Amino acid sequence: MTAVAARAELFDCRDAFAQALLEIAKADVRVVAVVNDSVGSTKLGNLRTEFPDRFFNVGIAEQNLIGVGAGLANGGKIPFVCGASPFLTGRGLEQIKVDAAYSNANIKLVGVSSGLAYGALGPTHHSIEDLAWTRAIANLTIIVPADPIETAQAVRAAYETDGPIFLRTSRMPVPVVHPPDYRFRIGRAAMLRDGRDLTIIANGVMVSRAVEAAELLDSVGISARVLNMATLSPLDSDAILDAARATGGIVTVEEHTVRGGLGGAVAETVVTEHPVPMRILGVPGVFAPTGSPEYLLEHFGLTADGIRAAAIDLLSARDAS
Q1: Which of 168, 135, 163 is nearest to 266 (CA)?
Q2: pLDDT tens, 23-70?
Q3: How many angstroms separate the CA atoms of 316 and 224, rounded?
Q4: Which candidate in 9, 23, 50, 62 is catalytic?
Q5: Which of 207, 150, 142, 227 is nearest to 182 (CA)?
Q6: Are residues 38 and 87 in the same domain?
Q7: Does residue 198 sit in the same domain as residue 158?
Q8: To 10 degrees, what angle do helices 148-160 and 13-27 make?
Q9: 314 shares a domain with 222
């Protein structure tokens, strides 16, 4: 962690999610929340208190959770279906595919405590496959916000967009990476830093670490572009290809397995349109061990120093070829 990061104020994006949803619900009686015995972890207690008749707790039954949400959507409501991401996606994947995506239901799936946030609870609670699972499903928008500013805007964008959406949020505290005038748009990446030597593409909790890595690289004369790829589907292929052409190398970093997530999506775009050297950082195709989120990120090199090292390795290999 850099000195700047150590001084930065950290925020739980679930707070931004809960506050944004409460404000939307106050303005639109169609908005309802459905949870799976997860009032505390979703931080929706205030919404339940203010709108008890628009709050549904189905218990620990994720398939029912999504089915109830889809039924509410078919009845003209706008349901935000919320639960811990490993269970929302792992247990409810068929319902996500059929009841949400195939049926084109106007349902908003919110996976909280994603990635490695449940670190001490071990592999059963690590949600490091959810993006690969959901990205394989057609007609499903996938959003992975990086900070509270983007989270609040992503909630409103999901509300305003008709159709099924998966919003992946974490409980892991993060600093603000966007300026106050930032405007999130579905399907558009945000360039947080420009650079000429390579590009770092990240989403979610890894975006702040990507920015820190770019600062470390800048101190040794390496200019790194940083893209926040908050929307995983639809993907901003134009931003990826522009980065490939302008900088000649890409490092992706995600709080997810390296198989089928952000790195896979970027690689699919690059290899078919403009091949450049890549490094894909994440959990390397293994079950993550038990430990604190901070320990696990360090263990897998998902830190500013780890990203910096991968970037230098990429540049060394590229220059030697």
Answers
A1: 135
A2: 999 999 999 999 998 888 899 999 999 999 999 999 999 999 999 999
A3: 14
A4: 62
A5: 150
A6: yes
A7: no
A8: 30
A9: yes
How many residues does this entry show for the chain?
321
The CA distances from residue 180 to 41, 190, 245, 297, in Å, are 27, 14, 30, 28
Answer yes or no: is 99 within a domain.
yes
The reply to whether 127 falls in a domain is: yes
CATH of the domain at 234: 3.40.50.920
pLDDT, residue 5, reads 46
Burial class (CB in 10 A: 0-12, 13-18, 19+), 19: middle
For the chain, what is the domain count?
A: 2
Judged on CB neighbours under 10 Å (0-12, 13-18, 19+), 202 is: buried
What's the rounded Cα separation, in Å, for the pair 267 and 235?
A: 12
Longest dimension (CA), the chain: 65
**pLDDT the model gives residue 37:** 85
Position of tokens 């349901």?
79
* Structural domain harbouring 41: 10-168
Q: Residue 243 in contact with residue 250, Cβ under 8 Å?
A: yes
What is the per-residue pLDDT across 126-167, written as a single tens digit (0 to 9) for each?
999 999 999 999 999 999 999 999 999 999 999 999 999 999
Q: What is the pLDDT of residue 2?
A: 42
Considering the domain architecture, whether residues 24 and 126 belong to the same structural domain is answered as yes
Assigned domain for 1 exists: no
DSSP 232: E
Residue 65 CB contacts under 8 Å (≥ 6 apart), including other chains: 34, 35, 36, 58, 81, 83, 88, 92
Q: Is 62 part of the annotated catalytic residue set?
A: yes
Task: Report how far residue 229's alpha carbon sits from residue 85's, in angstroms, rounded to the nearest whole number.
Answer: 19
Closest CA to 222 of 132, 149, 312: 312
Determine, yes or no, domain membership for 178: no
Instruction: Please give the structure tokens belonging to residue 319.
Output: 């220059």
pLDDT means per 10 residues, the chain with 321 residues, are 58 96 98 92 94 95 96 98 96 98 98 95 96 98 98 98 97 95 98 98 98 98 98 98 98 98 98 98 97 97 98 95 80
